[in-house]
UniProtKB/TrEMBL annotation:
GO terms for biological process: L-valine catabolic process. This is 3-hydroxyisobutyrate dehydrogenase. It is an enzyme of class 1 (oxidoreductase). It catalyses: 3-hydroxy-2-methylpropanoate + NAD(+) = 2-methyl-3-oxopropanoate + NADH + H(+). SUPFAM superfamilies: 6-phosphogluconate dehydrogenase C-terminal domain-like, NAD(P)-binding Rossmann-fold domains. InterPro entries: 3-OH-isobutyrate_DH-rel_CS, 6-PGluconate_DH-like_C_sf, 6PGD_dom2, 6PGDH_NADP-bd, HIBADH, HIBADH-like_NADP-bd, NAD(P)-bd_dom_sf. Belongs to the HIBADH-related family. 3-hydroxyisobutyrate dehydrogenase subfamily. Pathway: Amino-acid degradation; L-valine degradation. It comes from Brassica carinata.
Amino acid sequence: MAIRRAQALLCLSKLKTSFVLGSYSRFHRFSSSSSHHSTQFQNVGFIGLGNMGSRMVNNLVKAGFNVTVHDINRDVMKMFTEMGVSARETPYEVAQDSQVVITMLPSSSHVMDVYTGTNGLLHGDNSIRPALLIDSSTIDPQTTRKISIAVSNCNLTEKIDNWEKPFMLDAPVSGGVLAAEAGTLTFMVGGPENAYLAAKPILESMGRTSIYCGGSGNGSAAKICNNLAMAVSMLGTSEALALGQSLGISATTLTQVLNTSSGRCWSSDKYNPVPGVMEGVPSSRDYNGGFASKLMAKDLNLAAASAEEAGHKSALISTAQEIYKKMCEDGHETKDFSCVFRHFYNGKDEV
């Protein structure tokens, strides 16, 4: 715990530096002069200030939004208040100050609690202030749809234009911490299309791309399917490269073959799992940073549960699930998910 706390404080220290060096004025009003995006919403709440959420908040502030934050980690909230960002003690208090609330949380249970728990976003008399509730967590589509129904049963305390009811969007992201910091995330969005169009300027302040995926839960479904494909491609690439080494082909040479042939994929040419082949990726720094194996295991569990509910055959989900479960059991849960090359396939570093 002490190590994790130190890492979190180091991350926050770096984040604080980016705020100080960035050219923004504290809490100036949103206008066309302070942002490239035009929106009817100015006051944005954000709940969940982890590695992803903290950087997304940074970009919202840079875009000129008035941001109010909440997190169970008081050290994180203190860091933001010292930078001029308002903080509140509960999700309910964030909702009272916000036209839009974004959540970025670890699991389905956390999201459900923030929405429907004591002092949650929907706490009170069935009337809420936010017109838009956007969940960017990676959770199962079923939980998303349950919460969306609860939101649709609420009324707005203050009508905005012709909106009489609040809307919920599920908008999980792809791109990881680096994209969150750079503001180049991809959002996969489910929910009412008119709500998506209203939210698009907000999403564009944090990401490069947003893709409308259809009704409620479809954004969550798209994220689960994307991460399934990512896991399977990483396993296939790692297995091929480790086999190549056993057959006498260097990982560098085989990577060149893959990347100019039909085996080319993101895992081979953008996120190579072999230490010594590619700079700037987790394999080049002992698999530190990146997307933790425990998070991949969590997402594969979501995929497995969704496949079972849909009655879909899931042979590759099961295999990937078992491998990443073993990675976690063997003590590699905090290492990047590409560590399967070394710790499951016994691949060798490129020297």
